[in-house]
Design brief:
alpha+beta, Jelly Rolls, six-stranded antiparallel sheet, 14 strands, globular
Length: about 290
């Protein structure tokens, strides 16, 4: 007579397989949702000036990426926006001004869901190597729904460079924050304009941030830590008071932006790794 007794070890193996398969599937799903469909990279937001959306030009209301809102040009006066590949950062969203004294090119967009604690916003820019009058440029990270107007600087974190004759500290990049911090970096317009600069803003906590700027010509890296009042759900780029751009190839007077992305916090990256591990497990089981 055939026994219906099943050894305990066999039951454990069966349950173990089911649990492992379930865990693998869960991890695979989690990992897949962490992948960006456009790039296959572990980014929660990404857009590039090289995206085909911008092949025929750059206009307010366009959005060629994922995880960001549409571009706004509100606040632009005496300036404009164009596409250019003249700089060393390649194809770039490019800001220019044509009026000295009150010209500004003002562009920005929202970060969908806001920049989370532990997340990093990264962009590569190429700033002008010459600037005029009290002119300069800045990158503002703020809580808002549109561009900051000229002179209204209530951002959570603001990286900026202005002429030393009109601003102190000037001629070097500095960082202001909404809690009153104002720290100067070691990088100048010449450092960061030569081959571009990578800018990384990480929200370390609900009140602390780290902003790092790395000159892509190898001339230096500067890291500034400070405190801010959040949230951060909008990024704004501004160029002030050019002497008059001569066109898309005027790298000395224009401001270019290559790409922007938001990289998830480390826990999301860990889940992504588990997802790939789960898929590999299921593949081996087959």
């Amino acid at each position: 007579m055939r026994s219906h007794f099943i050894p305990a070890s066999a039951g454990k193996k069966t349950i173990g397989r089911q649990l492992a398969s379930g865990a693998a599937i869960a991890c695979a799903v989690t990992g897949a949702t962490a992948l960006m469909p456009d790039t296959g990279a572990a980014q929660s937001a990404y857009d590039s000036a090289a995206n085909s959306t911008y092949n025929s030009g750059w206009s307010a209301g366009q959005n060629g990426g994922t995880g960001f809102g549409a571009w706004s040009f509100d606040g632009t006066s005496g300036g404009g926006q164009e596409m250019s590949s003249a700089g060393s950062i390649g194809t770039a969203w490019t800001l220019f001004t044509t009026t000295t004294g009150n010209g500004i090119s003002d562009v920005g967009r929202s970060i969908t869901g806001g920049l989370g604690i532990g997340e990093t916003f990264q962009t590569v820019i190429q700033n002008p190597t010459s600037y005029h009058y009290f002119g300069g440029f800045d990158i503002l990270f703020l809580n808002g729904t549109d561009n900051n107007g000229a002179g209204v600087n209530t951002s959570a974190v603001r990286a900026q460079l202005f002429h030393s004759a009109y601003y102190n500290p000037g001629d070097l990049w500095s960082v202001q924050d909404s809690n009153g911090g104002n720290q100067s970096s070691s990088l100048s317009a010449a450092n960061t304009g030569a081959s571009g600069v990578q800018v990384d803003l990480t929200l370390d906590s609900a009140t602390a941030y780290t902003l790092t700027m790395k000159a892509l010509n190898g001339s230096g890296t500067s890291t500034i830590n400070g405190t801010y009042s959040g949230p951060v759900n909008y990024v704004n780029f501004r160029l002030y008071d050019g002497v008059g751009s001569t066109g898309p190839g005027d790298v000395a007077d224009n401001f270019g932006i290559s790409y922007m992305e938001v990289v998830p916090e480390p826990t999301s990256l860990a889940l992504l790794g588990l997802g790939f591990g789960g898929l590999a497990f299921l593949r081996r089981k087959k």
